[in-house]
Amino acid sequence: MYQPMNARINTQTMCKIGIYFALLVVSSKVAIPIPFYDYISLQTAFIFLVYPILGAKYGSWLTFLYLVSGLLGLPIFASGGGPSYIFKTTFGFLIAFTLMPFFAALVRKSNKLFSHHRFLNTLLSNYVCLIIVHLIGFAYKCFIIKFYIGDIINVTGILGITSLLDFLIDVGLIFFVTLSELQIIKRIH
Q1: N or C terminus of the chain with fewer C-beta within 10 Å?
Q2: Could you tell me whether strands 38-41 and 31-34 are parallel, antiparallel, or unpaired per DSSP bridges?
Q3: Strand, helix or coil at 32?
């Protein structure tokens, strides 16, 4: 008799993935455009809850499904969708979000600095992941501005200010996400 190896996914996990997919779509639409090709959205907050709720494996499936669905044309990103979205300056953040469950798994397993204090340990891990996400997003944004948009004006100041504003808002969001995460995990398990 044939039994597929690890091919089965339980109903509860499938429901979590479906609900989380919907939450990612809704959170991406709650966006405030800021100057110079950027958005501040609640999506960052929800991305940081993917790993603790779904784990690295299913969280990666979810984020990959989200990215592919948007690139195939579903208008699920902050400003739409479709294959041309790769030329938007914010697409680097979507790439980083897709890698986020793996970042979280690696960082959390290696972070032993505050192992005796769960909140500080989780917060530090989340901040390290946030820095990684912003570095990928910022590098992609600079690449697109230089090579695709071809802005010839000096954008360093504007880009730095909007990126710093975006990062600082995310720092505050991640603090509250960490508080929420610990409560959610306590209720789930």
Answers
A1: N
A2: antiparallel
A3: strand
Nearest to 18 by CA among 58, 78, 67, 74: 58
DSSP state of 80: B
Tokens of 95: 């790439």
- The structure's pTM equals 0.85
Residue pLDDT, tens place only, 132-188: 999 999 899 888 887 777 765 555 666 677 778 888 989 999 999 999 998 888 887
What is the SS3 assignment for 135?
Answer: helix
Asked if 33 and 39 count as a contact pair (C-beta separation under 8 A), the reply is yes
Strand partners, 38: 34
Rg (CA), the chain: 17
Domains of the chain: 11-188 (1.10.1760.20)
Q: State residue 118's pLDDT score.
A: 82
What gap in Å lies between CA 34 and CA 117, rounded to an integer?
Answer: 36
Contact 50, 62 (CB under 8 A): yes
